[in-house]
Design goal:
single chain; 9 helices; about 190 residues; two-stranded antiparallel ribbon; 2 strands; mainly alpha; Arc Repressor Mutant, subunit A
């Protein structure tokens, strides 16, 4: 399976949005510059993300995009599916017509892998990923590098106040399987 740039860039852009959501609307130009994604490509992706109800636009001075729902309610799988990306590793797209119109010998193997992959990505929310070790700090470094000083300053304050902390209701197995920790500490 190969995840296309649509899926990868959508997740990256939504992660950027989630990181900066508390600071206010984020422009696509800022995401483009910080993440190295073409502005015109982001516009196409955000049209789909908006249609799926994952983001909302804010007009006027200081406008941009915000998450339409809390980051804790948006899964990585939902983002990928919203841009018409498929989390499927079968050659037949699950149709069962892989070899001369019928199932190939390994069809069930790839179907099961596709199911597990979708379950895995459905089990990770934007909020959980934002709170992974090093993510807030990496984002802060990038913000400073491109001159997102206002957002960087607000983000640094959020990091120092412990805003980036994973909810305690995530069980130990989920934390271990996704690499999540209880709190990010910045020193």
């Amino acid at each position: 399976m190969r995840l296309s740039t649509k899926g990868r860039y959508s997740v990256t852009a939504m992660l950027d949005l989630a990181i900066h959501d508390k600071a206010g609307p984020v422009t696509l130009a800022d995401i483009s510059q910080c993440q190295g994604i073409s502005l015109s490509y982001l516009e196409q992706l955000f049209a789909r993300l908006r249609k799926s109800g994952l983001v909302k636009g804010v007009r006027g001075p200081g406008g941009g995009y915000r998450l339409a729902r809390p980051a804790s309610e948006i899964s990585i799988a939902e983002i990928i599916c919203s841009v018409d990306e498929n989390v499927d590793v079968t050659r037949c797209k699950g149709q069962g017509n892989c070899q001369d119109g019928s199932k190939c010998l390994t069809h069930e193997l790839w179907t099961n892998l596709s199911t597990k992959l979708h379950e895995f990505l459905s089990g990770i929310t934007l909020a959980q990923f934002v709170e992974r070790p090093g993510i807030p700090e990496l984002s802060l470094q990038r913000d400073k590098k491109i001159g997102r000083f206002i957002l960087a300053k607000k983000q640094a304050a959020a990091i120092n106040q412990g805003v980036f902390a994973v909810s305690k209701n995530i069980n130990t197995n989920e934390r271990a399987s996704t690499g999540l920790v209880d709190k990010v500490s910045v020193r």
